[in-house]
Design a protein that fits this description.
Helix Hairpins; 5-stranded mixed sheet; 7 strands; 40% helix
Length: 154
C-alpha cells in the first residue's frame, strides 16, 4: 500500500512538529501516572489508572498519525505557484453570483472552509487548480452549477 502525498504549508508543518513534541512529553508524564496508579493495587476499580490508560491510547494514536503525516508531507511554497496560475498555496479572489470571495488553496489536512482555506481535492479547489486571472470556471455545487470568475491569484 502506498501512502498519498500530504501537502502542507510551512506553518502547518511547524504546528505538527510542535504537537508531536508536546505529545512525546505528555507520553512520559502519562507513563509515570500509569506506573503510580499500578502501585495502588486493584486496577479494575482504579479510576485514575483507567483514565490514564485511555489518555495513553489517544496520545499513542496521535503520535503514530503525526509521524505518518510527517513522512509523506510535502511543503507548499512559492515555487508551487507559477505563471499566475492557481496552485497549492495560492490565494484566489473570485466572483460568484455578484459576490467576491477569497480562498487559500491548501492540502486536505489544513483545509477549513470557515476560514476560507479550501482543499486542492475539494470540488472548488480541483476546479480552480491551474486556472488564471480572468478565467471563468463552472463548478457543480449542491445548489447546482455556479460560475466562478477568477479576479486575482497570489
Amino acid at each position: 500500500m502506498t501512502q498519498q502525498d500530504l501537502y502542507i504549508s510551512r506553518a502547518g508543518l511547524e504546528e505538527l512538529k510542535t504537537e508531536l513534541s508536546e505529545l512525546l512529553e505528555e507520553r512520559k508524564e502519562i507513563t509515570a501516572k500509569i506506573k503510580e496508579a499500578r502501585e495502588f493495587g486493584d486496577l479494575s476499580e482504579n479510576a485514575e489508572y483507567q483514565e490514564a490508560k485511555t489518555k495513553q491510547s489517544f496520545i499513542e494514536g496521535r503520535i503514530v498519525e503525526i509521524e505518518s503525516m510527517l513522512k509523506v508531507a510535502k511543503v507548499i511554497d512559492d515555487n508551487n505557484r507559477v505563471n499566475g496560475r492557481v496552485a497549492l498555496g495560492s490565494t484566489v479572489k473570485v466572483e460568484i453570483d455578484g459576490q467576491t470571495k477569497e480562498f487559500i488553496v491548501t492540502g486536505s489536512n489544513e483545509s477549513n472552509p470557515a476560514e476560507g482555506k479550501i482543499s486542492n481535492e475539494s470540488p472548488i479547489g480541483r476546479a480552480l487548480m491551474g486556472q488564471k486571472k480572468g478565467d471563468k470556471v463552472d463548478i457543480a455545487t449542491p445548489d447546482g452549477a455556479r460560475q466562478y470568475t477568477i479576479l486575482e491569484v497570489h
